[in-house]
Design a protein that fits this description.
Elements: H1 10-17, H2 21-29, H3 34-52, H4 59-65, H5 76-86, E1 125-135, E2 138-147, E3 152-159, H6 164-177, E4 185-188, H7 192-195, H8 197-205, E5 209-212
Parallel strand pairs: 1-4, 4-5
Antiparallel strand pairs: 1-2, 2-3
Length: about 220
C-alpha cells in the first residue's frame, strides 16, 4: 500500500483491502521477523550468484558455489525454492551442432578457388556454407551463398534439417536473384549436402563451376 499512497488515498485503500488505519500503521512499525530477514538475504545471495554465472546455474551448481551456513551447505530444496520464488530459470545448455560431414564416398570438386577470395566483378565467385542458429523453437540450420566481389548474401535457406535441399534452395535463390549467370565458380566445403547429386546437377544445369576446400583445411573456407 505504501508505494500507492501517491495515487490513492489511505482511507480508500484501507476500505478496499478491508483493514483498519490503525492496523496499517501497526504493520508499518512492525519489523520483519528473523525468518523473513534470513529468507530475503538468501534470495539476494542466490540472485547475485545466478546472474554472476550468466543465468546458467541451477540449484545443484549454485549450492556448490554458495558459502556454507553455520558450517553446513544450504539445503538443495531451499535453494530451489528461492529460484522458483524469484522466477529464476537456468538457461539450457546448447549442444554443439556439426554442420560439415565429409565422411562420405560422394564425388568432390577440385579446389579451383585456391584461397583466392578476391573478385573483380559480380558473379565471378560465389561461396556457400551452412551454420546453425538457436531459436525459441530449437535449432535451425541456415545455408547461405555470398558473392565474393561484394560479400553480399545472394541466396539463403533455413530448415530444421541439414539436408541437400537446404544447400540447393540457397543456390536456387542466388541463381534467380542474379538472373541465371553462367560460368560462376561456386565454392564450398566437402559436406555431403554440397557433394549430393542434386546439388551437382544444379551446378551443371546452370553451367557453374564447382569448387571445394581441401578436407579439414579451414583456411580454404571463404
Amino acid at each position: 500500500m505504501k508505494p500507492r499512497r501517491v495515487h490513492y488515498s489511505l482511507a480508500g485503500m484501507c476500505h478496499c483491502f478491508n483493514v483498519s488505519r490503525s492496523g496499517y500503521y501497526a504493520w508499518l512499525r512492525r519489523k520483519p521477523s528473523q525468518w523473513l530477514q534470513r529468507r530475503q538475504a538468501l534470495d539476494e545471495q542466490v540472485k547475485s550468484l545466478f546472474h554472476r554465472h550468466k543465468q546458467r546455474y541451477g540449484s545443484e551448481r549454485l549450492q556448490r558455489k554458495m558459502p556454507k551456513e553455520n558450517g553446513k551447505p544450504y539445503d538443495l530444496k531451499t535453494i530451489a525454492a528461492s529460484l522458483k520464488r524469484q522466477g529464476l530459470v537456468a538457461k539450457a545448455a546448447r549442444k554443439f551442432k556439426a554442420t560439415t560431414n565429409s565422411n562420405h564416398n560422394l564425388p568432390v570438386f577440385d579446389n579451383l578457388l585456391q584461397q583466392d577470395f578476391s573478385a573483380t566483378a559480380p558473379n565471378q565467385k560465389w561461396a556457400g556454407d551452412i551454420t546453425y542458429l538457436w531459436t525459441d523453437e530449437g535449432w535451425l540450420y541456415l545455408a547461405v551463398i555470398i558473392d565474393l566481389f561484394s560479400r553480399q548474401v545472394v541466396g539463403w535457406s533455413m530448415s530444421e534439417r541439414m539436408t541437400a535441399d537446404l544447400a540447393c534452395d540457397a543456390l536456387w535463390m542466388a541463381v534467380f536473384r542474379r538472373k541465371r549467370p553462367k560460368g560462376v565458380m561456386v565454392h564450398s566445403d566437402r559436406g555431403s549436402q554440397y557433394c549430393s547429386r542434386a546439388y551437382r546437377q544444379l551446378l551443371q544445369q546452370h553451367e557453374m563451376l564447382g569448387s571445394m576446400s581441401a578436407k579439414g583445411c579451414c583456411n580454404n573456407n571463404a
